[in-house]
Design goal:
By secondary structure, the chain is mainly alpha-helical. 66% of the residues lie in helices and 2% in strands. The chain has a two-stranded antiparallel ribbon with strand order 1-2. The protein is globular, with a radius of gyration of 23 Å. The N and C termini lie far apart (65 Å).
Length: 501
């Protein structure tokens, strides 16, 4: 018993040490950066530090409450926001590790937790945006969800609902998890024979009711009637315009399919083996699975989450296409679901467990064929029809940065998939121990180089600093901020007490 406790403490000590090193390295990498995503960072800064909650167009009230502390940092509020980003981002690692060690070996689970932090998704720690805090919120919820699905304690389900409601107060996109969870509950309803039908319906109903009550109750307390919105006025306006223009339905559907193609090609290339595993697990939506294989609920969860989020992201991209110089159908907004990428890393690692479900080679071949074809098609086109960048799709931007790296990683992904068809364990080993470290760390280097450029002020940053120094004060109290917008135009924002500002 003493030996076992010592081993557990050693594992957590190693994880803590690695997390600390990652956090420190991210802090120095992000220190002193000028704003990168001007429109979004300015909006979050404004709603967090300068406006009352009822005037915020994004209902991210929990995020605003926590990050309001950056106001005490004076001119260094951006660096303070980045420090908070890093703390939340690395805080997700223990929960990823806890999930991983339930479905694979502890060392592999530790590797997955570390790789999740080293991947290009860590670029979001550099922005004054809610992505890093939401990354943590999602993984806390996911860990507790996978613990709770077999439980019958109503307090557990109430706490699960509170966690989802709080996540929706960090980013309202958490609301989109509800359809995914509803589909999962139908599956678990049929498979779980430990509880009666009425009990399970009660637990699910309590979960959804508490989640909705948490989101809207806290929103109303903080923002009044303005807080009683699912997504906020900005997203609601975009959605309503798309839905009311019936003449655009067919064109919208075509645009959705065009954008979806880019997302599917990217996911197939980056996660060939786990995508095949998830597709193979879809049969458990219709038949009972082996309860000894702890990875099945994780795979079903991943399938539900990515299916719903891909639909939401592609619809959003199609609905705003043409509304601005950068709002094109070739833009891949992977940041709206990249927080869930460690799910696919965990799925791949689950194949290395001795309890992994035994599958038939014929079905592995059938499933792997479209995934392999997608990788080869992606290699042929090299994403020339799309515009991955280090803000929206840092993983793809890093992979496609250099032809040699692109084709090497693509071939390695394809090799892992072919090996998985022949011997699932071997394919998973190639993917987890060779492909993943390369496909995550190499793109991170390229993305870091992109980010490094923002340590040097450009002409718009200099204009903003000049205006801030010489035009903001008692003589010109109305001029608050001058900065660079995404379209590279110089912009002056008037005082925020003016509703038209």
């Amino acid at each position: 018993m003493f030996w076992k406790k010592e081993v557990i403490n050693k594992e957590w000590t190693i994880l803590f040490g690695i997390v600390l090193v990652v956090a420190v390295s991210l802090f120095f990498k992000n220190l002193g950066l000028y704003p990168v995503v001007m429109d979004d960072e300015y909006a979050y800064s404004k709603f967090t530090r300068l406006l009352s909650f009822d005037r915020a167009v994004f209902p991210d009230y929990l995020y605003y409450i926590v990050y309001r502390i950056t106001s005490s940092c004076g001119d260094s509020f951006l660096n303070c926001a980045r420090l908070l980003n890093i703390l939340f981002f690395v805080s997700a690692a223990p929960f990823i590790y806890l999930i991983g060690r339930q479905i694979t070996g502890k060392k592999t689970a530790l590797l997955i937790a570390v790789l999740s932090l080293l991947g290009p998704v860590n670029v979001y720690t550099a922005f004054f945006m809610a992505e890093a805090m939401y990354f943590c919120a999602f993984w806390v919820f996911t860990w507790f969800f996978l613990r709770t699905i077999r439980q019958q304690d109503i307090l557990q389900w109430m706490l699960l609902g509170i966690l989802l409601g709080l996540a929706a107060l960090v980013k309202p996109h958490a609301i989109f998890l509800m359809p995914a969870l509803a589909g999962l509950f139908i599956v678990f309803f049929r498979q779980d024979r430990d509880a009666g039908a009425s009990r399970k319906i009660l637990l699910y109903a309590v979960f959804f009711a508490v989640a909705i009550a948490t989101k809207f109750g806290i929103s109303f307390l903080l923002a009044g009637k303005s807080g009683l919105t699912l997504l906020g006025t900005s997203y609601t306006t975009l959605a309503s315009k798309s839905m009311t223009d019936s003449s655009r339905y067919l064109n919208l559907a075509l645009l959705v399919l065009e954008n979806l193609r880019g997302h599917l090609l990217g996911i197939a290339l980056l996660f060939s083996v786990p995508v095949a595993q998830v597709l193979l697990s879809l049969k458990y939506f219709f038949q009972k699975h082996d309860e000894q294989d702890a990875s099945i609920p994780l795979k079903l969860y991943a399938a539900a989450v990515f299916t719903v989020l891909l639909g939401v992201v592609t619809f959003f991209t199609a609905s705003v296409a043409g509304s601005g110089p950068f709002e094109t159908i070739t833009r891949l907004h992977m940041r709206y679901y990249s927080f869930a990428f460690p799910l696919l890393l965990l799925v791949a690692a689950s194949q290395l467990s001795p309890d992994a479900a035994v599958t038939v080679r014929k079905w592995r071949t059938i499933i792997a064929l479209p995934v392999g074809l997608a990788i080869m098609y992606a290699m042929l086109m090299k994403f020339a029809a799309y515009t991955p960048n280090f803000v929206d799709s840092p993983s793809l931007r890093g992979v496609a940065a250099d032809p040699i790296i692109f084709y090497t990683l693509s071939l390695l992904s394809l090799v892992a998939l072919v090996a998985w068809v022949s011997r699932p364990g071997l394919g998973a080993e190639i993917f987890v121990y060779i492909f993943l470290p390369l496909s995550l760390t190499i793109p991170t280097i390229y993305v870091s180089q992109d980010l490094e450029k923002r340590h040097v002020p450009d002409v718009y940053d200099k204009a903003g600093m000049f205006a801030s120094q010489y035009l903001s004060g008692e003589k010109f109290p109305d001029i608050l901020v001058v900065g660079k917008s995404d379209n590279g135009m110089l912009r002056a924002m008037l005082h925020l007490d003016n509703p038209a500002a």
